[in-house]
Amino acid sequence: MSNFTLNAVAREDQGKGASRRLRKAGQIPAIVYGSAEPLNISLEARELTKALNNDAFFSSPITLSGAGEGQTVIIKDLQRHPAKPIILHADFQRIDESKKIKIRVPLQFVNFEKSAASKASGKFAAEAAVVEVTCLPKDLPEAVQCDLSAIEMGQIAHLSDITLPEGVEIVALRRGEDHDQGIGYCYAPRGARAAK
Description:
This protein folds into 2 domains: 4-94, CATH 2.40.240.10; 101-187, RNA Polymerase Alpha Subunit, Chain A, domain 2, CATH 2.170.120.20. It starts with a strand and ends in a 9-residue tail after the last strand. It has 196 residues and is mainly beta. Strand 4 and strand 5 form a beta hairpin. It is 11% helix and 41% strand.
């Protein structure tokens, strides 16, 4: 699990004008929700942008220093500019090490090249990039994997095919078997049989 730290500065000013001024000064307005009072903070735009370039940032606990000293949070939402690569606002949620959290983590499909379907010129189309899991913060994986080494032509990969670390559960599967949705499928491209 990656460790991320962000320097937070408390902010009193709120509203569109205050947020605009912060962004002009190279800061991003943010808020921390959770068990205590919401905390309005600002973060350095460069520092947050650098962290966002690491996929693990979205599924890792983040330590706040400065105004949020010692608080551990996860990112819950980002508001982005519709036309420019600019972050407008960030929402964080405090986490308690003794309570389970619900979070979306990246989904990785592995070992397709080892499958019989791949050797028969099959292709795999992923239909999901993330999956919602619940676990204690200490068990939070950066990503979960779906092993495709045994997939066959025409077969659908489901949530239940994901390999989960100990202590991690897929939220949809806790609701029952009828929520075991497809996350990708194996298919034969046009002309693959004719090319034998």
